[in-house]
Amino acid sequence: MSYLLGVVLFALAILISVSLHEAGHLLTAKAFGMKVTKYFVGFGPTIWSFRRGETEYGLKGIPLGGFCKIVGMTPQDDDVEPGDESRVMWRYPVWKRTIVMAAGSITHFALALVTIWILAVSAGLPNPDFPTTDAQARQEPAVIQLSQCVVPENAVRACTPADAASPAAQGQLQNGDRITSVNGTTINSYGDLLTTLRGLKPGDTAQIAYVRDGQPGTTSTVLAQTQRPPLDDPKGAAAPVAALGVGLVPSTPTRVTYGPIGAFGATADFTGQLAVGTAQALQRLPQKVPALWTALTGGERDIDTPISVVGASRLGGEAVENNAWLVFFMLFVSLNFFIGVFNLLPLLPVDGGHIAIAWFERARSWVYARIGRADPGRVDYLKLMPFTYAVILIGGAFTLLTIAADVVNPITLFSR
Q1: 153 with 227: CB under 8 angstroms?
Q2: Weakly modelled stretches of the chain, pLDDT under 70
Q3: The pTM is what?
Q4: Between vectors from CA 398 to CA 397 and to CA 399, what angle results, nearest 5°?
Q5: Nearest residue to 228 (alpha-carbon basis) of 218, 214, 240
Q6: Contact in structure between 144 and 150 (CB atoms under 8 Å)
Q7: Which helix (H) or strand (E) is 40 found in, with range?
Q8: 3-class SS at 131?
Q9: Closest CA to 356 of 321, 333, 381, 374
Q10: What is the reported pLDDT for 334?
Q11: Are 263 and 114 spatial neighbours (Cβ–Cβ below 8 Å)?
Q12: Which residues does 41 contact at the CB level (< 8 Å), separation at least 6?
């Protein structure tokens, strides 16, 4: 039940975000005096609506987004009523049109920034000093977190009754113990522990010295077997190695909370990281199509593949089910930021395409004026329709592929 609640809550959050996106267009267009005839949440048949002034507001039957109708977005629009010629959007200065078209993405960015700031002063943001690579982790002191078992294959999954019990637990080690030596070899870091264990064999007895609550101690245990790639080649072929059944407890916390003022700087830093990650994700989109097809046809789903609104909602459901509200809100932040950036791409029919054309017209007019030629006027959107249809076709196919993969073989963050 909590999973279903999470799915609904996340889907509702997305719907609200998209509705606010359209409200950004609505409010800025009205502020500049442009004529806005419709603002609806959803698509399809009208469930409920009312008119205030010249604008009809309402709710449609299919809650998948929304729309805002601004009269005369292009010179080719033929829905201009007599007397409204001066209020059509395409006649306004380029800077005003840019603000109106960018207002949707700015709304998404604002939602993300406000959410990040709230998280910074409440639940905390990811600690920038937390080790995120194997090399960084291996420099940490060998303070351990016990596993309940040793999984024999090279995989991350829940324990089963068939899995070998954790040798560390059998040796009476505890969470938070810092291992200082194994079979007489001094252990100064987690990397030393891994290297020393790789020098032993499954079934060997390990004599372990440790420090617990400032007091030294010793124990012995028989090492189990698992599969791991070489330490110097994480992508290499896995081979049988000795396992103690422990993980690393980093010396730095995973999250950091900030005061109301300090949270602004932390929000800016985190947003910068988010921007870089989003740009990299957009660059990788074409490369991920084969991986999505593999997931759809029965292969393993790569956690780094794109997700649709369906997949994001499912992850939101998992987060609520596991009481991981920070994950829920981070998903909300990431999705809003991604939508904001995507809508600014210079491609029709998204907002960035209209902005790009407006500035192209402005630059072309400036150049023609400098060389003494007549202003060529506005771009003919009808000539761009084949390109627009191609973008819609490719984007639609990619969206359907992603949704299908999210239904058939979804990404999961928690064991269910």
Answers
A1: yes
A2: 415-416
A3: 0.81
A4: 90
A5: 240
A6: no
A7: strand 36-52
A8: coil
A9: 381
A10: 93
A11: no
A12: 15, 19, 22, 58, 59, 60, 63, 66
Helix (H, G, I), strand (E, B) or coil at 130: coil
- Alpha-carbon distance 204 to 249, whole Å? 25
Tokens of 367: 């150049």
C-alpha 246/C-alpha 173 separation (Å) is 10
* Residue 381 identity (one-letter amino acid): Y
Question: Catalytic: which of 22, 81, 318, 361?
Answer: 22
Q: What is the spatial distance between Cα 103 and Cα 280, in angstroms, rounded to a whole number?
A: 24
Which CATH number applies to 134-248? 2.30.42.10
Please list, in sequence order, all residues whose beta carbon lies within 8 angstroms of the beta carbon of residue 99, skipping any fewer than 6 positions away: 28, 32
Could you confirm whether 22 is annotated as catalytic?
A: yes
The 10s digit of each residue's pLDDT in 351-376 is: 999 999 999 999 999 999 999 898 88
E strand or H helix at 327, and its extent?
helix 325-342
- Report how far apart, in Å, the C-alpha atoms of 247 and of each of 128, 191, 228, 351 are: 21, 12, 14, 47
Residue 37's alpha-carbon distances to 22, 53, 87, in angstroms, are 13, 9, 12
Domain segments of the chain as ranges: 1-126+267-408, 134-248
Residue with tokens 């407006």: 358
Q: Are 201 and 242 in contact (CB under 8 A)?
A: yes
Structure tokens at 177: 């113990």
